[in-house]
Amino acid sequence: MAIPPDPDAALMLRAKDGDIRAFEQLVEKYKQPIVSLMFRMLHDLSEAEDLAQTVFVRVYQSASRYEVSAKFSTWIFTIARHVCLNEIRRRSRHPAQSIQSSLPDGDEPATRQFEDQKTFTPPQAILHKELEAKIQQALDQLPEKQRLAVLLCRQDDLSYEEIARVLGLSLSATKSLIHRARETLKLRLKPYLQTGAWEDEPAETIPLKRCL
Predict the structure, then answer these.
(1) Fewer CB atoms inside 10 A, N or C side of the chain?
(2) Helices (H) then strands (E): counts for the chain
(3) Structural domains in the chain?
(4) Rounded to an integer, what distance in angstroms lies between the CA atom of residue 122 and that of residue 125?
């Protein structure tokens, strides 16, 4: 098979042939995005890291059967979706066994470890941190599939067509899902962005970066 244009798929084909370093490069590239996705869905950093490890174990176990049928990012996020939703279903069956992240007093959830690396002045940093918290709060109120779709939108490597493949939906259904999620987020966030209040009020559309 000729080497595909997707460099990550090429790495996976090398891993399929036993190149451990190629597999390690894929882990290095995708660990943070997958942990971030898991954390924002489950709010448990330790669990997110464990589930990301499960994703990479499944990738490694599937190496011998790997064939290039889509971008590697689409394939690995599809695996991550299955792992994440299986854990959510497990939690719904056994809610008492769900363990929340342990954080020092006064600390904030560890989303900051997975945010875009930008430089802010101290006042900007405070506002950015607060906005991220409000965005996450609004995300948490979305239905499960809408929340996952929005979080996948934050992955720069994934087009809408690829997000549709990850979700197992048609392109039109995926766009509709994301549109509904965006509108809900805009309605939820507009009072805060305008006044600093955190209320449920009807609102007009506001611009947010891509899906957020």
Answers:
(1) N
(2) 8, 0
(3) 1-95 (1.10.1740.10), 121-212 (1.10.10.10)
(4) 5
Q: Would you say 148 and 167 are in contact if contact means Cβ atoms under 8 Å apart?
A: yes
45 contact partners, CB below 8 Å, separation of at least 6: 35, 39, 101, 109, 110, 113
Phi, psi of 144, deg, nearest 5: -50, -50
Phi, psi of 116 (to 5 degrees): -60, 140
Q: Tens digit of pLDDT per residue, the chain (212 long)? A: 454 579 999 999 999 999 999 999 999 999 999 999 999 898 889 999 999 999 999 999 999 999 998 899 999 999 999 999 999 888 777 665 544 443 333 344 444 444 444 454 555 555 556 667 777 788 888 888 899 999 998 887 789 999 999 999 999 999 999 999 989 988 888 876 666 555 544 333 334 444 55
User: What are 209's two structure tokens?
Assistant: 């970066």
